[in-house]
Amino acid sequence: MKQVLRNSKGLLAVEEVPAPILASGRLLVKTAYSLISVGTEGAILKEARTGLLTKAKSQPEQVRTVLNKLKYQGLTSTVRQVREKLDEWKPIGYSTSGVVIGKAQDIAEFEIGDRVACAGHGLASHSEIVSVPKHLTARVPTDVSLKDAAFTTVGAIAMQGVRRASPTFGETVVVIGLGLIGQLTAQILCAAGCRVIGTDLDPKRVERARKHGLHWGIVAGEDDPVNRVLEYTDGIGADAVIVCASTPSSEPAIQAMKMARRKGRVVVVGAVGMDLPRVPFYEKELDFLISTSYGPGRYDKSYEEKGIDYPLPYVRWTENRNMAEFLRLISEGKIVLPIDAEYPIERAVEAYERIMEGEDKPIGVLLKYGDGVPSLDFHPRGGEGEREGGRDLVLSRSKRKAGGKIRVAVIGAGEMARTFHLPNLAKIGDFEVYAIVDLVGSNAKQMARKYGAKVATTAYREVLEDENVDLVLIATHHNLHVPIAVEAAKAGKHIFVEKPMAMTYEEIDLLREALQASNVHFTVGFNRRFSPVSIAAKRVFEGRKSPLMIHCRVNAGFLPPDHWTNDREEGGGRIIGEACHFFDLCYFFTDAQPKEISAHRIVSSDARIVDSDNVSVSLRYEDGSIAHVFYTTIGPKALPKERVEIYGGGRAAVIDDFRTLTTGIGDKLREKKWRLQNKGQCEEWVEFAQVIKGEKTNTLGFEEALVATRCALEVRSTLHFCPEI
Question: In the prediction, which pLDDT does 380 show?
Fold first, then answer.
C-alpha cells in the first residue's frame, strides 16, 4: 500500500509499505481522503528542516542521552544509532476518512462497510489503509461526503477549544489566528449563538472568515486588534478569547489578555509562546486555560487503546463525542469547510511543498486515494510481490543454499532489536536477517532495507509459514512473547525470545507443552550471563566449596506509570520485564536452584512512582548461598545503572556497569576495565548459533530460563498479596 513518510531532516516520500494487520480493539479502514494539517504538519517539517545545531540547542535532554551512549557504547555504536535516527522514516498525518474493511471481534459498534472518520497521530496517517481504535473512529452521517469527513479530527480540536471557553448564547468571543482551526472555531462559535471577532495577519483569511459568519474581522498588520476589540465591545472587552495562532512569539497570548474583559477567559489551542506577565491576569482575574487536542480521552491509553469509555453523565464530551458532534454540524449545514486544494496520494510531496514554500498558502489541503470511493476488498495497489492484501512486501528472493546461514525472522523491530539484535546478527557470520516483522509497515520496510532482509511484513504468521525461515527473534511487547513462541514451535522454527520468557504460570505451561512437542532450540534474552565481565567474575570462584553472598543494585531509571511496560496485561511490570535479568545472573553465579524468596516494595504517596518497581528481593539457594536484588527507579541518572557484588571463600568480585571488574583474593585487589560496556548480547547470539549447528549444548534453554522467570512471578505475587502486620 502507499503511505506518506517523512524523516528527521524534513524530507518526504510516498512509499510502498506493508499494510497493517487486524489487531484487537482495532478497525481496518480503507482511506478515501486524508487532510494535511497545514499548521501542525507544517510546523513539524519546518522544525525538522533546521540544522543539527539548532535541534541540539532545543533538545538538551537528547544531547545528554547521546553523550551517555558515547560513554558506555563507544563511538561506532553511538554514531550508528544517531544516523539511524536521522534516517528514520515515519508516518505523518492524523485526520482521515474511509470505509471499514475489517474489525476485531471485540468491536460491536461498527460493521464492515461503515463510512467513518478517523483520528490519531501515527494511526490515521496519510496511508491507503489505517488501523485505528474504536474511540478514534466516528461514523459518518449518510448526507456527509467522505471528502468533508476528512476534516473531522481538526474539527474536534476546534470544538474542544470552544468547549474550554464555555461560551454562552450572546457572548462575544475573539478568535486569534484564522488558519484552518481558527476558521472552524469561528464557525462553531457562530453556530453556538456567539458574536465572533476574528483577527489574523492575512487579510484573505479574515475575508474568508467574514463570508462564513464572522461578525467582525481585524487584519492584525493593518490595525490594532486590542483597540478594535474594545471598540466593538463598547470598552468592556471580550467574554472569551481563543488563541488558534501558531508562533513561538508570546504576543498572541499577551494580546488575548488585553482583549478579555475582567473575569474573562483565555483559551490557548495553538502552539504559541507562553512568556506572560502576571499583572494583566491578576488585575482582571482572568481564567487561563489550555485546550488539549480533540478532547477528554486524548493521550489516555485506557480510553484510546483499551476502549474504556468515560461515562457520559460524568464526561459529557469526549474526543470521540466531539468528532461525532462535528460531523453532525457538517450534516446540518452549519460548517462550510475550507477546501483549497486536492492532490492524489501519488503527488503528496507536491502538496506539502505548496504549503511549505508557496506565497499564497492554502489552509485546506486534501489527499485523495483512488477515486475517493473505497471498495470493500483488501487489495491495495502495490508493488510486485505484495500478497495477502499487501501485508507481506517481498523485497527480493534467493534460493536456499544447502548448509547456508541460519535465516532469521525478526518479529518486533523496536528499540531493543534496532540497538542490539539487528547489528549483532548482521556482524555474526552464522546468521542472515531474512525477514522483518513490525506492526508499523514503514518501520518493517526500513529495517529490511537497512539489513538486506528479503521480506518486510506486518503479519508474523507469514514468516512462520515461510520455509526459508529457520529461527525467529521475538522482540515484541511482552504479552505477545508466549503466543508467538508457541506458534513458532509448532511451525518448527528455532526461537530466541526476549525477556520475559512468560508473564504467568499458565503461559509457562503452554510454552513447555509446545516446546516438548517440537524439535526446536529455544533460548531467552538473559544476556548478562554471557557477558565477558560476568564470565570473568564467575571464574574467580571456581572450585569454591562455601556458599556465595551476592548483592545486585539496579538503578533502573524512571518510566512513567502509563508506560506500556508498567501495564499489567501488556508489559507485566518491570520486575517481570527487567529485574528477571538479575535473578538469572544470581542463578548463573551460584549454579543452584533457589529455595526461598521474599520481597518488599516501597509505599509512596507520589503518583509518579510505581511502588512495585522499587523492591528489595532476598533469595536463598540450595547450596546455602544467598542473594539480594535491590531494584529502584527513584535514583539519580548520574549514578551508574548496575552494580553486582559477589563474596565467598575469602574472595570477591565487583562488576560496575559491565565495564569494570574488581576482584579480591586474600589481600590483593585487581581491576580490569573493558573499553566499552558489554552486557553479553552478541556473545549470546554466537553461542545460540553454535547450539543450532550442533556444536554446543544449550546452557540457557527452557528449564534454565524458567528459574529466573519463576523468581520474577513469585516476587510479583508476593508484592501484590503480602499481608501487613
Answer: 36
Which pLDDT belongs to residue 57? 61
How far apart are the C-alpha atoms of 101 and 30, rounded to whole Å? 6
φ/ψ of 703, rounded to 5, equals -65, -40
Residue bearing cell 550442533: 694
DSSP 637-695: TTS-SEEEEEEETTEEEEEETTTEEEEEETTEEEEEE-SS---SHHHHHHHHHHHHTTS
Flag residues of the chain having pLDDT under 50. Answer: 379-390, 723, 725
> What distance in Å separates the CA atoms of residue 291 and residue 269, rounded to the nearest whole number?
5
Measured on CA atoms in the order 298, 301, 306, 312, is the torsion positive or negative? negative
pLDDT on residue 387:
36
pLDDT (tens digit, 9 = 90+) per residue, 238-290? 999 999 998 999 999 999 999 999 999 999 999 999 999 988 888 999 999 99
User: Which grid cell sits at 440?
Assistant: 508499523
Q: Are 497 and 486 in contact (CB under 8 A)?
A: no
- Contact residues for 614 (Cβ-Cβ < 8 A; gap 6+): 601, 602, 604, 631, 632, 633, 634
User: All domains of the chain, ordered by start, with CATH?
Assistant: 2-151+337-368 (3.90.180.10), 154-290 (3.40.50.720), 388-527 (3.40.50.720), 528-677+702-721 (3.30.360.10)
Cell numbers for 420, please give them.
542490539
